[in-house]
Amino acid sequence: MDLIFFGMQGAGKGTLGKTVAENYGMQIFETGAELRKLAQEDSELARKIKSIIEAGHLVSNEVVMEIVENFMNNLEGNSPILFDGIPRKIEQANSLNAVLEKHNRNYRAVLININKETALKRLTTRRICNICKTVYPADYQEENCPNGHPLETRKDDTPDAIETRLNAFETETKPAIELYKDKLIIIDGEPQIEEVKILALEALDKVMS
Length: 209
Prior knowledge:
The protein is α/β, with parallel strands linked by helices. 49% of the residues lie in helices and 15% in strands. It contains 8 helices and 8 strands. It has helices at 13-24, 31-38, 44-54, 61-73, 90-102, 116-125, 159-178, 193-208; strands at 2-7, 27-29, 81-84, 107-113, 127-129, 135-136, 151-152, 184-188. α4 runs parallel beside α5 (90-102), α5 (90-102) crosses α7 and α6 (116-125) packs across α7 (159-178). The chain starts with a strand and ends with a helix.
């Protein structure tokens, strides 16, 4: 069973996704990570993406779906996939669903649900390790990550940038989530992350077993 993870910025989607993927032996698909991986390769798809980026263009939805297909074709043992950060819009949701159905993949969607006030509080107080790329919430008291690297406020966590991202979730991603209403599992993302992990695994055990 593949899972499509949704969550407002600050919901802890990335952290929870790693826990879920490890628990169920899933491979995580995250567009940015796949683009960085392909940048190190010399395949036809990698060259196509490099030419788009070098020309200063955004990678189109069509090319993103090529990246998804490439990811599926290179899966070890047909592992289940956790999609993190995709789809962001209705058009992309329709395209992703078509690819999943073409490959006869069973899938469900997961929404880590928080309100906007919680998102704003978390986003304005979290910090990141620029070496490990791990994000730490406000209740992490240390100045450094466990590997000793200093933590910093993310450069894109300014009030204006946060407001833009949250508005995009409301106007673009929420309509995409509606397409999955018959396949949607909702997780309460308001508690502390350790409690959210427990809630998520309890809910997902019912569909992943």
